[in-house]
Design a protein that fits this description.
Oligomer: single chain
Strand content: 15-25%
Mean pLDDT: 90
Keywords: DNA-binding, Transcription, Transcription regulation
Structural class: alpha+beta
Strand order of the largest sheet: 1-2-8-4
Protein name: CRP-like cAMP-binding protein
CATH architecture of the largest domain: Sandwich
Number of domains: 2
Low-confidence stretches: 1-9
Organism: Halomonas fontilapidosi
GO cellular component, one term: cytosol
Number of strands: 11
Order of helices and strands: EHHEEEEEEEHHHEHHEEHH
InterPro entries: cNMP-bd_dom_sf, Env_Response_Regulators, HTH_CRP, RmlC-like_jellyroll, WH-like_DNA-bd_sf, WH_DNA-bd_sf
């Protein structure tokens, strides 16, 4: 579903462009509403559009088989989906699935590649974002191996809360298990532990973050490390 481009733009990458580059970039964008569970590309699929989320967020999922899937990155209003195009490739190595419904700014791949060639500032900005995303991918691999499910769940809930811009999240145990690459029983125990500490409430797929500060303490250090890196690489000094 298409709609008019909203204002002001709330995607950090686009907001970081100069007024002239931003106006030129937005001229080739359209605002599109994405539904929960919508698949943008499958592994090996061609990337036809780039997506800059406004109030939705997208899971990037590595798939070994139908039953072996793991979320390796999450993209919200801080970033974009379509990174291989920055490297001159149009094939997606991951499954891109809408995890939180909402609106994105979408641009055809050909137009995006044209803007990359015309704007050195855009190319430099997205190279920095690509570095941050690569760091997130590698940290997820280490986090999955070394950290306990409860700490990983707390981190994942914080990441989701940041991108949903809400304390209330609709997430089933089945979905959480797939995102974290663990059995449903492991998610149940971890969620019960966080609820027992009064950090969250959970009922029939609805999770409410009750104590964000406490949830940050319960999360593994990967959450804080990711935020520090993002601010160091992508947030200019003096920015909010």
């Amino acid at each position: 579903m298409q709609s008019s481009i909203p204002g002001p733009v709330t995607n950090h990458l686009i907001d970081s462009l100069s007024p002239q580059d931003r106006a030129s970039f937005l001229a080739d964008c359209e605002a599109v509403d994405l539904a929960f569970g919508e698949v943008l590309t499958e592994p090996g699929g061609q990337i036809l559009h780039v997506h800059f989320p406004l109030d939705c967020f997208i899971s990037l999922i590595a798939s070994l088989s139908d039953s072996e899937r793991l979320e390796v990155a999450m993209v919200g209003s801080e970033g974009m989906y379509g990174m291989p195009l920055i490297l001159g490739l149009d094939e997606s190595p991951l499954r891109a699935m809408v995890q939180g419904a909402g609106q994105v700014l979408r641009m055809p791949a050909a137009a995006f590649c044209r803007h990359l060639k015309q704007s050195p500032a855009l190319k430099a900005l997205l190279n920095r974002y690509l570095y941050v995303l690569m760091h997130q991918l590698t940290r997820v691999a280490a986090c999955t191996h070394f950290h306990q499910v409860e700490a990983r769940l707390a981190r994942w809930l914080l990441m989701t809360q940041d991108r949903a811009h809400s304390d209330r999240l609709h997430l089933t145990h089945e979905f959480l298990a797939m995102m974290l690459g663990v059995r449903r029983a492991g998610i149940t125990l971890a969620a019960m532990a966080l609820q027992g500490r009064r950090l969250i409430s959970y009922q029939r797929g609805d999770i409410t973050v009750l104590d964000r500060a406490g949830l940050i303490e319960a999360a593994c250090g990967c959450y804080a490390a990711d935020r520090i890196l993002y601010r160091r690489i992508l947030i200019k000094e003096g920015s909010p």
